[in-house]
Description:
By secondary structure, the chain is an alpha/beta fold. The protein has helices at 27-38, 58-61, 77-87, 106-116, 145-151, 170-176, 189-194, 206-215, 243-256, 274-291, 294-304, 311-318, 321-336, and strands at residues 17-23, 46-51, 68-69, 92-95, 101-102, 122-131, 140-141, 186-188, 220-231. Helices cover 38% and strands 14% of the residues. Strands 1, 2, 3, 4, 5, 6, 7, 8 and 9 form a nine-stranded mixed sheet that branches. Strand 1, helix 1 (27-38) and strand 2 form a beta-alpha-beta unit.
Amino acid sequence: MAGVQDGGSEGAGRPTFALVIPTHRRPEFVVQAVESALRQTRPFDQLIVVPDGVGDPAVAALDGVPVEVEPIERAGVAAARNAGLDRAWTDWVCFLDDDDLLHPDYLARVEAEVLAAPEIGAMNATYWSFATEAGPDDEFSASTLDECLEAIRTAVPKKDLAYLEIEGRSFDLLLERMRGSMSTAAVRRDLLLRAGGFPHGMVTAQDWAMFVNVARLTEWRLLRERLAFFRDHPNTVTRSASPVKGLTALRVIRSFWQPSQLPTPLHRPLEAYRPNYRHVLGWALHACWRARDLRTYREALVTARDILPRRSDRLRAAAPKWLKRLMQALRQRMERIGLRGRVAPPERFRDPMT
């Protein structure tokens, strides 16, 4: 099934925009995501939904909806995004996860920014976080786009989104951690193709790799208006951890420091990223320990040698959580009684989060 949204670009020289929505077995969510895309005050020139699996229920759920639905054989979210990128014919490609929603003014603001500064190559926007029943990390309760739009009339922003402000140091700051949001990402199609799209065969961090490779070619700009709604729910990908995900994240970080045919912008030396990489290693090792996966545990430690060459850093990451909490409490107590700087815990037991 395929369809194209009416109301394409008007006027000579006006940039064109496609939206790619990958989805996997969440028909009730993807229908809402598509609805939010169709309600843009500046319509997308192309809407592409890529179900990850030819038998995905999204195909039936979107029957008759004016979008291009192009299912692929089950291959993961990176393959789905790349399939959408391959089908896009527009100047720009935007992305939306199937469980998130766009504000009606999202594309109008993106286009206005592009028209005002044609040198822009990639951008993000800030967002709201919501859930059916709002938890401590959510900004309001809602289930639909209309409920979100009603809620933001009085909602107070809670999340600190300063981590998205990376223009001028995009490559350097993205080496530390993922500092982008896929559901507000808009990238010039030629740059995205040159950056290699999304790497295949990974269970996590494909978006991080894309952000870093695009940052080799252009700076990421941020729209500070909250132009999307990120849905918090029990199956959110960022809630889950596994040994394979942890190991993959370490491999992705290692790949950032390997020779590339793409430009390598100015950045700090590897030493400067130790706290961030210790945190990722600790997360990976904890997932391995919980799963009793000693083989992946050992492989994670071996992989980490290239990004954490100091043995003390790897030991700190491997310390059990109870010991980290104990040492953090000890450090705080030392600060209160004025001993910080004169007495310190052994290097290998300090909190990897600090």
